[in-house]
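Sat 14:20. Reprocessing the chain from the morning session after the first attempt stalled halfway. Input below, unchanged.
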Amino acid sequence: MQTTGYIESLVSAIIAPCEHLPTGSQSAGTPSFEELLVYTEASLAVWRFPQVRQYAQRLADHPGRLNEHYQCMVISLSARLALAAGDPQAALRGTATAIEQASSPALRALIHYQWAAMLEMIGNYPDALRAYTDSLKNLDSSNDVLAVLAQLGAARIEGALGDYATALHILNSQQDSSASASTHDVVRLLHIAHRAELLTASGQPDEALALLSSVRPAAVTPRTTYAVALIDLALLGAYYATQQWDIAGSFGEALAQRMEEEALPYLAARARYQYAQLFSDPGSPYYSPPLALEHLRRALSHLEHVPFCDLHAWIHLRLAQTYRAIKHDRKAFIHLEKFTDFHSSALSLRTAHAIKETEIELVTRQRDLEIADLRRQNHELQLQLSNALATVEEYKQRMEDQIAYLGVVAHDLKNPLAAIMMSASVLERYGQKLTKDELEKHTSAIIRTAEWMKDLVTQLLDFTALSTGRLTLAIEPVHAALLFDTVIEAYRVRALAKSLTIHKHYHAADLYVLADSRRLQECLDNLLSNAIKYSPLGRQVHCSIEQHGEHLRFLVRDEGPGLSQQEQERLFREFTRARSAATGSEGGTGLGLSIVRRFVEAMHGTVGCTSAPGKGSTFFIELPMAPPPRGNQEHLHPSVQELVQSS
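Finished this time. Tokens:
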């Protein structure tokens, strides 16, 4: 077998591993060195690590290992197994040696790809993205299938980091520039499966279903088994996202059983994990924490011989949340700890501290529950029992907030941290070769991301202060119109960027409300920011002040997609985002409107929303009116004072 030939065989084993897995007679026979390499690559692709280690030993004992054309592949395999065993230094040295010994650019490209896939498996996304890029740099037009695989890998990484626009752009450019590979039967299925998953993850599950509905082949062959499994997993995710519970249930159960019967551990684990969502989602008609636990544990069992990977972590998080739902707090904490072990590198010091606080609260809550149980036996201590139960409820709410908080931080801090790491790595490796514009681009990206993280942490600090009652407000008369003007003027430029027009429907009358001027400005800022975020290009945003008896009402009305009744009911809860997609790339913790609600209620006011799908939304804040203050304008927020003075 020529070098080019066995490279093609190895690439074929990556895209269609089930076709290249050995039968019993083939495995027990005396395969050639090239065949052993293909068996190993196919087994790695489906995460059969016990077989991979067996083949690695047979390769080490095979006389063919001395052939200079194969030595680099043997070293690459050893490096990947070292990484799986938790020895990154040996893995890095081995990969560098394998690349150095590769006799052709095609071999180097394949080794870079193999290394990237292994890094992606264990969750090292920044280095995996660089390795996929290095693979593409070594390819020419004759390696179009491997080029598509590397681009698919890069798109998966961008999607995992939350940059869905870039991920979809990669897939679109791939479709345009790699026509010959894209028409390859299996590669086409892989491309569609990844595109559908990205569409679902970015909030477009209906488009994903439309894409998938017509591509799944009626007959599944060993060549298409792996790709069709990914198509089916994408379908299952889209069914859940569109809340087609019945279809998702029957389809998910059949898919999980099929993957188990075909002994594909990673795909079986993914299928069981996704199927468990049917029973762990409180919004599902089949909600059943015990059944969810059963399927999640089965998912973990399929990964028993697999290196600790990203899927392990998310299964442990789902187990923690499910155990929490049935009040098994100790088991919840055990799985929560395993989740954080995997993601510790992506968590801030504040999050690590929060994890420790959660541990303390779990232990404290268990102790108080035991004390309360003893006190229930003594009628004379009824009053103390009542106080203890109230404390238990407080701990329960705080613990639930902490679990939700951890999930938010793990998702929302992981992505910007990875982006900063990537930009910093580029500056470190290529800083002397970059132009001034390129340097400014990367440094600006780091600054923007850091500022976004600072805003996120500020929101979380406000939420913590509100939750624990440590926040104090300075309630005093506040000039309603001047404060609203300040907020509106701050958003003029941002509105113009989307061709939006902000209309004011109030006069600069001397109407005052009782409020904390700084916190009220932050609340109005949030409502107007959301209105601009969710408004299509070229529409109108209307800002009003209305008097309702002894109260003043601030209103912000947009012409966005609107909200269903169910979305409105969830809107002001902590860690809840509306399903309607923003018209830009904005994201957030899901804390904004819950903080607005808490601030407004602390100021003895109310906040609400009226909306309907397709008819826009109107958000309002209503506060008690106040008589005009006497004397000077010291009661005004500094930015409002400045506006008054300039006018």
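Confidence is low (pLDDT under 50) at residues 176-183, 345-357, 584-590, 643-647.
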